[in-house]
Specification:
Chain A contains 18 helices and no strands. Chain A has 434 residues and is mostly helical. In chain A, 44% of the residues are buried. Chain B is 73% helix and 1% strand. Chain B has a two-stranded antiparallel ribbon with strand order 1-2. The chains are: A mainly alpha (434), B mainly alpha (336).
Chain lengths: 434, 336
């Protein structure tokens, strides 16, 4: 069997799994898996760009995805009445001031020689800078948060079409990735992992606490959609006559149509990204990246600037993650910082990349679909299994109830076992990279 | 008098919690750093090992409580601790046998091992959540205080007061005992010496007849025992929740790296550095300043650098600063 046939068969198999969900459960459920599978595939693609092309171990995926979600809010939500006058501009001033202080500190650090004087110059600059920054920011943030806190209490967004937030999310995440890459890429591989893990937590902490930005844990629940609402479809004459023409239930049909529209948008983005990354991988640039990944010392000896190339690829990967994050927030129509958990948004993506095959874009896509399918479906399977086990137990016993309640956590065990088995018996993944 | 009051406030809200939290982090970091020194990878499952050991301890504690056995004024969990440690050690040894040993033999690079530990992390996390659930649990019993705030006020006659909780006292005693014992073990015993030799230069140690499997086994046992200790003490002091334990991974790694990854002494120092920076930066100094400064110099706000929610940012910032300016950590661990 040639490699190409096997790859096609793998994709057909995963497709069949999803179709079987449509047949046995509902097409709405199957399409929900497809949509999240598409998003997972894009996230896995982003991680794969960093890990598969360059061997950069980024476990801060969650942070970049969350930044993408923030972009969706900042672009698409209508601006809050009076927030910019109340304190928005002052917040901007504070942020610019903070950036200037950090730039000044970096400059001082570069200019002065190593030693005591550098510390003497830097410490007061940073401490005083921080105090002044807080003095500018705090009243402004409080003023913005005081505006209609039950509904708004943040500066709102720009009120632009939400589709625009996808590239913006990519840019935002790329910017953050550049800053982080600049500081952390010099570190050895597992220190980079620990550092990125921390950065992701910080991004979430900022989203949770800076209420003026995205309402913090009060969440934003009304991100506008790029596609029609189910309820509007159900009331439109044209749609109703179409549905009765094919003899379908309007409620289910409207859900399916909306999900299909999303799937179309996501698929377009995924195809563009795959095309771009395949083209990049097969270009001289891609060959250089592979050379660096396989032997950094040799590549450096050939005159390649390893650190710069690493930074480049890190930023690119972060941008893809940011795009996926904005798309995710668009699909869900909300930004809930509490929902960003490392197991789901970092480590699960890693399982996808490893299972799919690191270094292979098609593998990342396959892994994204397969692992998301399992993540969703293991829960009902676990429930079924537990029900089977507990069938003989006395009704209403506490132990039985406990087992039934905790069946949902079985999927974590399943994911771990899949990861361990893959690494042991097929470390190159389902579709190995070159 | 004002100076004394300020000192007491500071001790009650910064010093004591800092030392306790630092000791708990230090125990966690010791386990992570030992694994790093000998097996040469960052074990991402360490936070979940803590959760697993704590869970085992709580389960045994429930059995003891059901049988009506208590530990006087000390928490019953301490009585259950040895059993919890045994369970955690057995589980970790089983994972080594089933999972890690294969990779050790095939000499893979450390990133593959990190990835494998992610798999183990998923499994342990799932098991803990399945068995004990995801809720927050308080499991400290026995006397709550060694001395209460009211008693302290009575003794000293100061306006401000200081209370010492039993769990804090227990933590302090345990960390002193553990560090002393570990120091003795690594410096004086044959096994400890062979472990250090293995950590310094694997090939040389093998040539000198050190049995690698035995060293690895002892490291896993020590790491699981220390993780369980850290987890139980943290849980007694605050509360047990699987997700919180998973998140402790970051300050623990930070502590280990700050001290010098692979250096036990550094892990202890790192634990205290991280704990104190977290508490220092997020504590509101308004009350302390209230005693120290003249009335018109009083700060209007809380005199707090960052809100407590940014704790995670603090441990991370310390980590990055140390990595950038002294990549080997305070005590010169394995190079970065």
């Amino acid at each position: 069997m040639s490699v190409a046939t096997r790859n096609v068969l793998l994709f057909v198999a995963v497709g069949a799994l999803i179709v079987s969900t449509g047949l046995t459960q509902s097409w709405n459920a199957a399409l929900a898996i497809v949509n999240m599978g598409l998003l997972s595939a894009i996230m896995a693609l982003g991680v794969n760009i960093q890990w598969g092309y360059a061997g950069l171990y980024n476990v801060g995926t969650m942070g970049f995805v969350a930044l993408g979600g923030l972009a969706a809010v900042l672009v698409s939500i209508p601006p809050t009445e009076g927030a910019w006058q109340a304190g928005g501009f002052r917040i901007l001033v504070a942020l610019v001031f903070g950036a200037l202080i950090i730039a000044a500190a970096a400059w001082v650090y570069k200019m002065l020689p190593r030693g005591r004087w550098r510390f003497v110059a830097l410490a007061p600059l940073l401490v005083a800078g921080f105090v002044v920054y807080r003095l500018i920011l705090d009243p402004a943030a409080a003023a913005v948060e005081a505006i209609n806190p039950a509904l708004q209490g943040n500066i709102g967004g720009l009120g632009l079409p939400v589709l625009l937030s996808w590239p913006v999310g990519g840019l935002l995440a790329a910017g953050a990735g550049w800053l982080i890459g600049k500081t952390a890429l010099g570190l050895r591989s597992d220190y980079l992992a620990i550092a990125t893990l921390g950065i992701a937590e910080i991004v979430i902490a900022v989203l949770k606490n800076e209420d003026w930005l995205g309402r913090g844990v009060k969440n934003i629940v009304d991100i506008p959609r790029p596609v029609p609402y189910e309820i509007d479809l159900q009331q439109s004459q044209g749609f109703l006559s179409f549905v009765s023409g094919i003899g379908a239930d309007p409620a289910a049909a409207s859900g399916i149509v909306v999900k299909l529209l999303y799937a179309g948008l996501f698929l377009a983005v995924l195809l563009i990204l795959i095309w771009l990354s395949q083209a990049a991988l097969n270009s001289p640039w891609g060959r250089m990246m592979r050379a660096i990944r396989d032997n950094e010392v040799a590549a450096a000896a050939m005159g390649k600037d390893v650190t710069r190339r690493h930074l480049q690829v890190f930023v690119l990967g972060c941008a893809v993650l940011g795009i996926a994050g904005a798309m995710l927030a668009t699909l869900e129509g909300q930004l809930t910082p509490g929902a960003y958990q490392p197991l789901r948004f970092t480590f699960l993506i890693w399982v996808m990349v490893v299972v799919g095959g690191s270094g292979s874009n098609l593998g990342a896509v396959l892994g994204g679909f397969l692992i998301w399918y399992l993540w969703v479906q293991v829960e009902p399977w676990g429930n079924g299994l537990i029900n089977l086990i507990t069938a003989g137990m006395a009704e209403g016993s506490q132990f039985k109830q406990h087992l039934i309640d905790s069946a949902a956590h079985m999927r974590l065990v399943v994911m771990g076992v899949i990861l361990i088995l893959m690494l042991r018996f097929r470390p190159q993944g389902l579709i190995p990279g070159k | 008098m004002d100076l004394l009051n300020a000192l007491v406030v500071f001790a009650n809200f910064v010093l004591l919690p800092g030392i306790t939290y630092g000791a708990q982090l230090a125990l966690g970091a010791l386990g992570a750093t030992l694994v790093y020194g000998i097996l040469r990878f960052s074990n991402f499952a360490h936070g979940d090992t803590m959760a697993f050991g704590t869970m085992a301890t709580i389960l045994v504690m429930w059995l003891l409580q059901a049988a009506g056995i208590g530990f006087g004024s000390l928490p019953t969990a301490l009585l259950a601790l040895p059993a919890g440690i045994v369970v955690a050690v057995l589980f970790v040894l089983a994972t080594d046998r089933l999972v890690y040993r294969y990779y050790r033999r095939s000499k893979v690079n450390s990133l593959t091992l990190v990835m494998v530990s992610l798999g183990v992390m998923f499994v342990m996390n799932g098991i803990v959540r399945t068995i004990i659930g995801v809720d927050d649990r308080q499991f400290a019993d026995g006397a709550r205080f060694v001395f209460t705030a009211a008693q302290f006020r009575e003794w000293t006659g100061l306006t401000e007061s200081l209370a010492l909780r039993t769990t804090q006292a227990v933590t302090l005693v345990v960390i002193v005992l553990v560090v002393a014992w570990l120091h003795w073990f690594l410096r004086r015993t044959r096994t400890g010496k062979s472990m250090r030799a293995f950590s310094d230069n694997e090939n040389l140690a093998l040539l000198s007849g050190v049995n690698p499997e035995r060293v690895v086994m002892i490291v896993w046992m020590l790491s699981a025992a220390l993780a369980t200790l850290a987890g139980v003490l943290y849980g007694l002091d605050k509360s047990f929740r699987p997700f919180t334990y998973f998140q402790l991974l970051l300050p623990i790694f930070a502590a280990a790296v700050v001290g010098g990854f692979g250096s036990p002494l550094g892990a202890v120092a790192g634990g205290f550095v991280i704990a104190f920076s977290e508490i220092f930066v997020t504590y509101s100094f308004k009350k302390v300043f209230g005693y120290l400064l003249p009335v018109d110099w009083q700060p209007d706000g809380l005199a707090q650098l960052l809100t407590t929610d940014y704790k995670v940012a603090v441990s991370f910032t310390v980590l990055v600063l140390v990595l950038l300016f002294r990549p080997t950590g305070i005590f010169r661990g394995k190079s970065a």
